[in-house]
Every structure is written in structure tokens, then in C-alpha cells.
Amino acid sequence: MAPETTKPLLLFPTLPQRHHRRPGCRAWALAVVVAAAVLVLVLPAAGPMRRRMFRLGAPAEPVELTLLAGATDKGAVCLDGTPPGYHLQRGSGDGSNSWIIHLQGGGWCSTLKDCSNRRMSMYGSSNFMKPMWFAGAGILDSDQLKNPDFYNWNKVFVRYCDGASFSGEAEGRAQDGSTLYFRGLRIYEAVIHELMEKGLANATQALLTGCSAGGQATILHCDDFSARFPQEVSVKCLADAGFFLDVKDISGERSFWSVYDGVVRLQNVSKVLPKDCLANKGPTECFFPAELIKSIHTPMFILNSGYDSWQIRYVLVPGSSAPNKAWLSCKENIQNCSSTQIEVLDGFRNAMVDGLKVVEDKEDWGMFIDSCFTHCQTLYGISWNSPISPRLGNKTIAEAVGAWYSRRSQGVKQIDCEYPCNPTCSSLLPT
């Protein structure tokens, strides 16, 4: 499977980054244009220079990696057998007993070969994990102006090194004869247990969140996470870009189903799947979020783009679908899509909206489904809360999530109109 989009600071696998302009989205307010002009000066196209942009205003020291204590004895290890890790930044003031636990994303590995290859990266071994900065990282930022609801909370970034959304429970054998450890479920459980001992058990507020494959993990573990706290504790979940669809690609094949089926079978994720779903459907179908959310009772906020750039590239138009030159251009830059191609993308968006209809009946849930060509929006300051952030109902993502979590407003469920109707879908958003 192709790797996920590069996310500076958040350490996703590298893919080229491009910024895309939206036709019909020129009605910008002057303040937005000025802000965009300023960001152009500090937001280079990709690579180390972009990473430095996220370090502006950062604390003197990055947040160090903490390796899980006793990982080997617990069998809670990365693909290569090294201990997993996390980054913990302590809260302060009235946020001292409030916690955000973020599960990192980074694709999946569905074959022995793919999982073996991942061992030589931060997605399969803690040997490659480095310290990281939280400044500029949206919901993890400690700047009150940029992150007013969560700025002083305890923040934890849990590193992803199992390749199955923190859900596997198995072992495999690589071609060189070495053992591959599919222990994502043990990693999740052991990290949460260790954090409980470090103060999470005393939380008055807790939010489990994650992006992409980490958003999928958030959905999978939401009810389990909530069940670890007394009933009076406010526990909720936020899944960012984790609503992956079971749709046919442009060649008519269910290529992404094959990826999920490989993950489910190879890594044995059945232990985390809802029993009521497994009673009627196979484990692969139950691994898809549209089925998972039917069984979840904990309040959850679903954040996703209806035109998710990663899913368009790897679910709707994967390399295996043999796209022609026009489709290759379209999936890299939505501005290049023809009207016929936009109709196909609209069909993908409509399938997502259909899959989310169950959320309408879940009173304490929230949604923010915009129409921007982007992927993962909580971990970028520009997407989370800036003058050019996507807006629905005149709220940025940070404002919508904050209002939902704190119950400042009821019915925080917004679904955008079809592309390219929303002028707040900036060409500067990460893709």
C-alpha cells in the first residue's frame, strides 16, 4: 500500500506536497487574502523548511520520546520488537486534570513484505523515532489564542509502529526468518495503563483523538477508552480523517477492501471489533468505520473532508486502477479534474455522507465534513484555527470541536455543500 501524505512534525511517510487552487473560490475577505500572503512567505512547498515553520514560537526544547516501560515483558512491542513510545507534555492551571491522547497515523501494512519493510522506519521501530515539537500543531498547541479550549491540557502523542491502527494481536515471520510482532492492541493497552499511572486516572476531562490510521484507531478504541473512567468524568473521542470508505475504485475493483482484508487477516484485529457487528458480518466489513460507528456509545466527533485527498489518491484512484494521464493529474490537483471526474468525486463524497447518516441520531455526537481537498486537519494550525481555516456554520474546526466538547452549543453537526462551493477551502491547506 502506498504511504500516507507527509505531515510535518507529525512524521507521516513522505509523499510530494502540492497546493491546489479551487475554481470559483475567489470571494475572499481582505483579511483572509492578507493572512494568506503572510503564510506564503513562511510556508515553503515541503521538507525541512516547512518543518521549521511549525517550530516558530516553539518551546526551547522539543517534547522528548518516552519509551514504554517493561514493553518486552508485556509483549507490547513494535514490528521489530523494540519498545513503543509516546511524547507527554504536562498541562497547567485549570487544565492540569484534563488530557488529550492522540494516536498517530501512518497507513497500514497488509502483507508480510510490507510489514517487514516498515521495520526500517519510525512506523515499525522506535529506533527511528525522534523528539518532536507540539507548537503549531493545532489541537496540541499550547498557545491559548490558537487553541483556546485545549491549550493547557496534558497532551500525549502516541507513536504508531504496528501497522494495524493499534489493533493487531499476532506474530509473523519475515523472509529473513526474523519475527514480526503484530502487537498494536497490546501497545494501546500498555500505553494507556502507563499514562493512567502518570495522572490520567485522575482526569476530570479526557479526549481520545487521532488522525488518518490513528483516526481509525480512535474509532476502534473509543468505547474501551471511555470505560476506563468513572461515569462522572467527561470522556469523548475525535476521529480526524479516519472515516475510510468501502467503495469501488475507478476500475470497478474493491482495491481498498483488499488492503483492509489483508490487515485484518494478517494482524488478527478481531479482538477490537464490535461483537454485535461480528455476529452478522465478517471481520473485514466490521473494520470499516461506517460499520464501527453503529456500535459506539461514547460521544464522538467525526472530522473529515468529503473530498479526502488521501482517499481520492489511494482508495478511489489507486495505482492498481491503472489511471490514465487525466486521472493522474486530477488526483494530484483537484483543479485539474474535468466535470465528469468531479461527478465521480461527488459520488465518493455522497457515499461518505450516506455512511454518516447514523450520526444524526446520536445526540451527543458531532460532525464537521468540509469539501476541501485535504487530509488530517486537527494537527495543523492553518487548518485547526487560523484566518484561512475551513469554516462551516461560520466556525473553524477548533471552534466547532470546542463548542461540541464543552456543550457550548447543541447540534454541532455540519456537512458542507459539494466542491467547489466553500470559499474557505484555502489553496494553502496541506494535501
Identify the strand order in the major beta sheet.
1-2-4-3-7-8-9-10-11
- The string of secondary-structure elements, in order, is HHEHEEHEEEHEHEHHHHEHHHEHHE
Q: How many extended strands?
A: 11
Strand percentage lies at 5-15%
Question: Short description, anyone?
Answer:
With 431 residues, the protein is α/β, with parallel strands linked by helices.
Descriptive notes:
By secondary structure, the chain is α/β, with parallel strands linked by helices. 31% of the residues lie in helices and 13% in strands. The chain is built from 15 helices and 11 strands. The chain has helices spanning 30-42, 48-53, 71-74, 112-118, 184-197, 213-227, 255-267, 275-278, 283-287, 289-292, 309-316, 325-332, 339-355, 381-384, 397-406, and strands at residues 66-67, 85-89, 98-103, 154-158, 170-173, 179-182, 205-211, 234-240, 300-305, 366-370, 413-415. The chain has a 9-stranded mixed beta sheet, sandwiched between helices. It has a two-stranded antiparallel sheet with strand order 5-6. The longest helix has 17 residues, at 339-355. The radius of gyration is 20 Å and the shape is globular. It starts with 29 loop residues before the first helix and ends in a 16-residue tail after the last strand.
How are the secondary structure elements laid out?
Blueprint: H1 30-42, H2 48-53, E1 66-67, H3 71-74, E2 85-89, E3 98-103, H4 112-118, E4 154-158, E5 170-173, E6 179-182, H5 184-197, E7 205-211, H6 213-227, E8 234-240, H7 255-267, H8 275-278, H9 283-287, H10 289-292, E9 300-305, H11 309-316, H12 325-332, H13 339-355, E10 366-370, H14 381-384, H15 397-406, E11 413-415
